[in-house]
Design goal:
The structure holds 2 protein chains of 2 kinds. By secondary structure, chain A is of the alpha+beta class. Helix content of chain A is 31%, strand content 31%. The longest helix of chain A has 17 residues. The chains are: A alpha+beta, B alpha/beta.
């Protein structure tokens, strides 16, 4: 596995530790998150029972704007958007429908969108934010951890903000000070403060 | 009396009916027939002395005959959960591998089987598992969890059990009390399909362990034989009740070691099955219990031993 800068799995049960190292590797690889996660520390203890994962993200992808995947050609009567990459076409149309109204957004073929000139918001069209991959990335990272955690651990607490994330899960109710007692020490081991 | 041994025949579709007729003529039984595109797999029982002859006749058809220890058995692969976000499940690989050795496997995903404290088994799951010849429990990675949850998962299960888990065989033997019939260590929760040689080796070990557990049962059966050999009763049912041929199930009649599962609705067909003549003056009702199965609305036939019926067909 992975070119993570730091990857540690800790557990009092050695067999389980090795198994969870494999599981974490497989899941991160399957969900294509190896490039996104920089450091990851997992602690599992079935006796408590507790599963804690803490880590850092490498970098957050920036917001996708129209200029990133389309050319904006301004004519006299109309603006023609020449789409280079279809990936974000659906969210783009959604945004345009809100701004211009459905009847003013014309799409003669897959790669062309025609808009009327002279409506509000024209000037900044190139800079219009169409999608924010970091939104789904948050979900993907948390989903991966949910995936890695033991199946019976249904009670959980999760956090992801400013490049740091943690995920705590247990079969029993989590104590209120779980972050201070379990999560903060893991971040300290990675040389980071939460 | 000739001894029938379980074998698998693998060959092409072309002229495979000749092999089927041959097995029939030799006094053998075909328990399951799979046609997959150009290939045919026949799970069957054939007389031991005639295996060589079948091999010889199958040779020009590029067919091969291999011994398959699990033919004629129905095995439950029990997993504490079959949740979608934990796929691929190892129970899928286990079930598939046991199928290759001839067994008919059913996956049983428990509704509340996860978690060491909260794991439990409901009455339907219990009854369904008890309808099989053997149950393989595919457990997880932690010794502690297996120790705590296994007693709940095996409660009132009477069929032989083979347990798999990540801890090694010795540890499994230690944590499971009272002992079960088989243990395979080194197979826990794995998030990929089995592909490495050591992983496939574990599956072979599992097949050995399962056949060993079933052999013990077979030995016991040999001492007090069943009133009729299940595949024989299967052939009679398939011949006499023509609705069976219209079922779309892969195995409309499933052979077990001590009975059969007939995939017809119990309410409408139980009496027909009971009154079916097996031989002169002997009906199915005389030599077997015909009961409703907990699996859908199927019929479960449990053949009684000779000592009880004094009839041997």
């Amino acid at each position: 596995m992975p070119p993570l800068n730091y990857f540690v799995v800790e557990s009092p049960d050695e067999v389980g530790r090795v198994a969870y190292e494999r599981i974490a590797g497989d899941v991160l690889q399957d969900l294509d998150l190896i490039k996104v996660i920089d450091r990851l520390h997992i602690y599992v203890d079935p006796k408590v029972p507790i599963f804690v994962a803490a880590g850092l993200l490498r970098h957050m992808p920036r917001a996708i704007r129209i200029a990133d995947f389309a050319n904006v050609n301004r004519g006299e009567n109309e603006i023609v958007l020449d789409i280079g990459d279809e990936t974000y076409l659906a969210p783009l149309l959604q945004k345009l429908w809100i701004i211009y109204g459905k009847e003013h957004v014309d799409q003669p073929d897959r790669f062309t969108v025609v808009l009327p000139v002279g409506m509000a918001g024209d000037e900044d069209l190139d800079r219009l934010v169409v999608a924010d991959p970091s939104e789904t990335l948050y979900k993907d990272v948390i989903y991966a951890l949910q995936y890695i955690a033991p199946e019976g651990f249904k009670v959980r607490r999760q956090y992801i903000r400013e490049g740091k994330f943690y995920y705590v899960a247990s079969e029993d109710t989590l104590p209120t000070d779980i972050v201070e007692t379990m999560v903060v020490p893991l971040f300290e081991k990675m040389g980071v403060t939460l | 009396m000739t001894t029938l041994v379980p074998v698998t025949y693998k060959g092409g579709v072309y002229r495979h009916d000749e092999i089927m007729d041959l097995i029939d003529d030799l006094g053998g039984y075909i328990v399951q027939k799979h046609v997959m595109a150009q290939d045919v797999v026949l799970q069957s029982f054939v007389p031991r002395d005639d295996i060589e002859m079948i091999r010889r006749i199958a040779k020009p058809l590029a067919g091969e005959v291999v011994e398959a220890p699990l033919v004629g058995t129905e095995i439950a692969v029990v997993s504490p959960s079959l949740e979608i976000h934990h796929l691929p499940h190892i129970s899928c690989d286990i079930a598939e591998y046991l199928r290759r050795s001839g067994a008919k496997t059913n996956m049983v995903g428990l509704a509340r089987g996860f978690g060491k404290r909260i794991a439990n088994l409901n009455d339907e799951e219990r009854d369904v598992i008890n309808e099989h010849d053997l149950a393989v429990y595919a457990l997880g990675n932690f010794e502690e969890c297996i120790r705590q949850k296994f007693p709940a998962l095996r409660r009132e299960i009477h069929v032989p059990i083979v347990v798999t888990g990540a801890p090694d065989r010795e540890t499994l033997m230690q944590v499971i009390d009272p002992p079960v019939e088989g243990y395979v260590g080194g197979i826990g929760r794995i998030m990929h399909r089995f592909k490495r040689p050591e992983e496939l080796g574990k599956l072979d070990e599992l097949v050995d362990e399962v056949s060993r557990a079933l052999d013990a049962r077979r030995d016991a059966l040999a001492k007090d034989p069943l009133s009729v050999f299940p595949p024989r009763l299967m052939a009679i049912i398939e011949e006499q009740i023509h609705e069976v041929s219209m079922l779309t199930h892969p195995t409309p009649v499933t052979a077990q070691m001590e009975g059969l599962r007939v995939k017809l609705p119990y309410d409408s067909y139980a009496d027909d099955v009971r009154s079916l003549a097996v031989a002169e003056g002997v009906t199915v009702g005389d030599i077997a219990d015909v009961t409703p199965s907990r699996m859908r609305n199927y019929i479960l036939i449990r053949i009684k031993p000779f000592s009880e019926t004094r009839i041997l067909v």
